[in-house]
Amino acid sequence: MTAPLPLFPLSTVLFPGARLPLRIFESRYLDMVRECLRNETGFGVVWRMDTDPAELGGHARIGTEAIIQDFATLEDGLLGIECRGQRRFVVRSTTARDNGLLIGQVDWLKDLPAAAIAPHHGALQALMREIQSHKELSAEVSADAEDAVSLGFGLAAVLPIDLPRAQNLLEMTDAHQRLDALLDMIDSALDNESSA
């Protein structure tokens, strides 16, 4: 059954467990934040695929719910919010409020069951543990290196991956397929580095 969710198209792909700091200045998004805080609900982050977020088809169909964890007035007077990615969803349709805020009718994607790490993904596990040993990087993502689902989302959130590939990783439903894709990306990057 679909549920209404305010959408915030951004030039980023948000993964479950990932941190998302935002500066809010448009009135439609200030209203959205007030509504989310009042109702203790989240909003949907979808990758904005073109310059006009209100344009039909201008954003990805699969996104991630963002939950506001903290907020403050920034030095420049704008509202700063700290969010964390939660559940994934698929947008079935959208309408726009009078103020331009997009409201999506979404279906929540079922959380994938925790999965053990396959032996050939051990290097990715080691990489995540290394990332988690650095204070600045560990704050960026909440991930469990022992769970294939969490590991895949966590690495996808912190590694430098272009937006189309990041969106593809978000949309995958098989945790081991996501880890295989990440391994291929890392191997490819290392090959390019060594041949440069």
SSE blueprint:
Elements: E1 3-10, E2 19-24, H1 27-39, E3 43-47, E4 62-73, E5 79-96, E6 102-108, H2 122-132, H3 135-138, H4 148-158, H5 163-171, H6 175-195
Parallel strand pairs: 1-3
Antiparallel strand pairs: 1-6, 2-5, 3-4, 4-5, 5-6
Helix pairs in contact: 4-6
Describe the structure.
- The structure is a single chain.
- The chain has 196 residues and is an alpha+beta fold.
- The chain has two domains: 3-108, LON domain-like (Archaeosine Trna-guanine Transglycosylase, Chain: A, domain 4, Roll), CATH 2.30.130; 119-195, Up-down Bundle (Methane Monooxygenase Hydroxylase, Chain G, domain 1), CATH 1.20.58.
- Helix content is 35%, strand content 29%.
- The protein has six helices and six strands; from the N terminus they run E-E-H-E-E-E-E-H-H-H-H-H.
- The protein has helices spanning 27-39, 122-132, 135-138, 148-158, 163-171, 175-195, and strands spanning 3-10, 19-24, 43-47, 62-73, 79-96, 102-108.
- It has a five-stranded mixed barrel with strand order 1-3-4-5-6.
- A hairpin with a 5-residue loop joins strand 5 and strand 6 (102-108).
- Helix 4 runs parallel beside helix 6.
- The protein is globular.
CATH superfamily of the largest domain: LON domain-like
Note the gap between the termini. 51 Å
Global shape: globular
Oligomer: single chain
| Structural class estimated from helices and strands | alpha+beta
Q: Cα-atom Rg, whole angstroms?
A: 17 Å
Write down the CATH class of the largest domain.
Mainly Beta
H and E order: EEHEEEEHHHHH
Count the helices. How many? Answer: 6
The CATH topology of the largest domain is given as Archaeosine Trna-guanine Transglycosylase, Chain: A, domain 4
Number of domains: 2
Strand numbers in spatial order across the main sheet: 1-3-4-5-6
Strand content: 25-35%
Q: Give the rounded overall mean pLDDT.
A: 90
